[in-house]
From TrEMBL, chain A:
Residues 345-428 form the E2 binding domain. GO terms for molecular function: ATP binding; NEDD8 activating enzyme activity. One of its GO terms (cellular component) is cytoplasm. It comes from Macrolepiota fuliginosa MF-IS2. The active site is at residue 211. Its EC number is 6.2.1.64. It holds the Pfam family ThiF. It catalyses: ATP + [NEDD8 protein] + [E1 NEDD8-activating enzyme]-L-cysteine = AMP + diphosphate + [E1 NEDD8-activating enzyme]-S-[NEDD8 protein]-yl-L-cysteine. PANTHER family: NEDD8-ACTIVATING ENZYME E1 CATALYTIC SUBUNIT, UBIQUITIN-ACTIVATING ENZYME E1. This is NEDD8-activating enzyme E1 catalytic subunit. One of its GO terms (biological process) is protein neddylation.
UniProtKB/TrEMBL annotation, chain B:
It catalyses: [E1 NEDD8-activating enzyme]-S-[NEDD8 protein]-yl-L-cysteine + [E2 NEDD8-conjugating enzyme]-L-cysteine = [E1 NEDD8-activating enzyme]-L-cysteine + [E2 NEDD8-conjugating enzyme]-S-[NEDD8-protein]-yl-L-cysteine. CDD domains: UBCc_UBE2F_UBE2M. It comes from Macrolepiota fuliginosa MF-IS2. This is NEDD8-conjugating enzyme UBC12. InterPro entries: Ub_conjugating_enzyme, UBC, UBQ-conjugating_AS, UBQ-conjugating_enzyme/RWD.
Length: 428, 178
């Protein structure tokens, strides 16, 4: 390959996008009605701004695929640094990069390798960024291994949707792998089922009964759990275990190994210890490649209107041969993030909390008994338990306007509601 | 770019931005305000503004632990209800299913936890441990052995331990006070 000095080779050469332009220059039987032949390619290359969350196993594949299909404005976030064990599959990294930021090294690598692509890294947490940051993108692709981070970005993008602003709806393409299994899905926040809607489909991480761990260990995993669940807090008290701290893992390993010896159990190793306490499922490069390709294919189709996109859940099972299944995961009415009802609630500045509660109970169309109310930052009135009822009771006499700003949200829960109701308080 | 906005249905068009209250927070509010506890159980919040950390007091009114006041700390994290609450007994008690560090052997606190369960189910499960201790799932092995081999001695050990006495090499916390 020719050596290109970073930044100097922004011009495209003839035929660079020959194959991709076959798809973008003319409509086909599967193109979206909004497809504009000739206008999609410039949008893809000049305007479309895409965010990649995670620069690990999936992220490396995703970044390469996006750059090669013609996305030119890519941002990438990852809080991790490169570990030597990543090098077998996270192919944007080399031994010399160990210890450096995944996002920064991946961005530099892509920019060196694919001329004219601008990759902007952020070495940090997705939670560091606010709505303004996420608003700038047309699309978001996630290649994460953490449920918590996925739930956060999912909730953030659902919350970002502003009924007055079409630009606020950001399609989220989520990829995930576990060994030989994986899934890719398209989430259109507030329109389709969201990540939270499907949380009950997650494989539960295996937990062993605590009494087995304590008394009758049979597996190396039992010894490791004994060290982490029972011995760590007993020996270290309130000191939190940090599964990213090699010293902590070493302590757990030694403790587990001596217990294993006592019970004649074989197989406790340093890496198994790390695997059990971090709940690591071995990553398989080929699964990552397939799922990343599926995700990037969806990003391309959505960004260019060139074909129907995934509706909405693709599942890959490679454990026994290859099996894939695509289905429409349905939105859950009681989803805590995208479900539940939301009501505009106009009241006067003079209305007290008690009067607001009476108004809710009297509202025929929502059928609420004994509502409990809170805002994102404080409790307004809780019906139970007694201590909390007492603590919040003084608020009953207060005006709602003293506790909730105009346009502020009040979350209402009640046993008669499937999950919760959110009120958008408007003062008149 | 696909015009996604046009797919928003009319009823959705009225949908507002959801509050920033976390799903865990809402679910805990729902669980706590809908608790249906017998008079033998009470919750206490050290900081009433913090719903995620509190104490549960159980005062069994029947069975061998009758007369004691047993305290459990609850710590709920942001992954609730996908992860169970972390529950520990804050006293040193003599019980087959509770170890000396306060770890509790209750299946729904670990291997059998499901998001459809709630705080009420956990609390009821804890109370049940005092009515029907289970020698088959021991965390305090000595207590479990005593319970299945020599029930009278076990009952007497329970009484002694609850007064703050010594059983074998351990001195237990007095749970009759307060
Ligand atoms: Zn949802």
């Amino acid at each position: 390959m020719a050596t290109l000095v970073n930044g100097s080779a922004t011009a495209d050469w003839p035929g660079r996008y020959f194959h991709i332009d076959q798809i973008l220059d003319k409509p086909g039987p599967r193109t979206d009605p909004g497809f504009a032949a000739g206008a999609e390619a410039p949008f893809l290359r000049d305007q479309a701004k895409i965010l990649v969350i995670g620069a690990g196993g999936l992220g490396c594949e995703i970044l390469a695929n996006l750059a090669l299909t013609g996305f030119k404005h890519i941002h990438v976030i990852d809080m991790d640094t490169i570990d030597i064990s990543n090098l077998n599959r996270q192919f944007l990294f080399r031994s010399k990069d160990v210890g450096k930021s995944k996002a920064i090294v991946a961005a530099d690598f892509i920019m060196q390798r694919v001329p004219g692509v601008e990759v902007t890294p952020y070495f940090g947490k997705i939670q560091d960024k606010g709505d303004d940051y996420y608003m700038q993108f047309n699309l978001v692709i996630c290649g994460l291994d953490s449920v918590e981070a996925r739930r956060w970005i999912n909730a953030t993008l659902v919350n970002l949707v502003d009924p007055e602003n079409p630009e606020s709806l950001k399609p989220l393409i989520d990829g995930g792998t576990e060994g030989f299994k994986g899934q890719a899905r398209v989430i259109l926040p507030t329109i389709t089922s969201c990540y939270e809607c499907s949380l009950d489909m997650l494989n539960k991480q295996t937990a062993f009964p605590i009494c087995t761990i304590a008394n009758t260990p049979r597996l190396p995993e039992h010894c490791i759990e004994w060290a982490s669940v029972l011995e760590w807090p007993r020996v270290h008290g309130d000191k939190k275990m940090d599964t990213d701290d090699p010293e902590h893992i070493s302590w757990l390993y030694k403790t587990a190994a001596s217990r294993a010896k006592e019970f004649n159990i074989e197989g406790v190793t340093w890496s198994l210890t790390q695997g059990v306490v971090k709940n690591i499922i071995p990553a398989i490069a080929s699964t990552n490649a397939i799922i990343a390709a599926a995700c990037c294919n969806e990003a391309f189709k959505i960004a260019t209107s060139s074909a129907a996109y995934l509706n909405n859940y693709f599942m890959l099972i490679g454990t026994d041969g290859i099996y894939s299944y695509t289905f429409e995961h349905e939105k859950r009415a009681d989803c805590p993030v995208c479900g539940g009802e939301s009501l505009d609630f106009p009241i006067s500045m003079e209305v007290t909390v008690e009067e607001l509660i009476d108004m809710l109970i009297e509202k025929q169309d929502i059928q609420i008994k004994k509502p409990s109310l809170s805002t994102p930052t404080r409790q307004i009135y809780l019906q139970a338990p007694p201590q909390l009822e007492q603590a919040t009771r003084p608020n009953l006499e207060k005006k709602v306007s003293e506790l909730v700003p105009g346009g502020g949200e009040v979350t209402v829960t009640a046993s008669t509601l499937p999950f919760s109701l959110s009120l958008n308080i408007i003062y008149n | 770019m696909i015009k996604i906005w046009s797919m928003k249905k009319d009823e959705n068009a009225a949908a507002r931005k959801k509050p920033k209250t976390s799903a865990a927070q809402i679910r805990v509010q729902k669980d706590l305000t809908e608790l249906d506890l017998p008079s033998t159980m009470k919750t206490h919040f050290a900081d009433p503004a913090d719903l995620l950390n509190f104490t549960l007091t159980i005062t069994p009114d029947e069975g061998m632990y009758k007369g004691g006041t047993f305290k459990f700390s609850f710590a709920i994290n942001t992954n609730y209800p996908h992860e169970p609450p972390k529950v520990k007994c804050t006293q040193k008690i003599y019980h087959p299913n509770v170890d000396l560090e306060g770890n509790v052997c209750l299946n729904i606190l670990r291997e059998d936890w499901k998001p459809v369960l709630n705080l009420n189910s956990v609390m009821v499960g804890l109370q049940y441990l005092f009515l029907e201790p289970n020698a088959d799932d021991p965390l305090n092995k000595d207590a479990a052995q005593e319970m299945s081999k020599n029930r009278d001695q076990f009952l007497s050990n329970v009484k002694i331990s609850m007064r703050g006495g010594r059983v074998a090499s351990n001195v237990y916390d007095n749970v009759l006070a307060s």
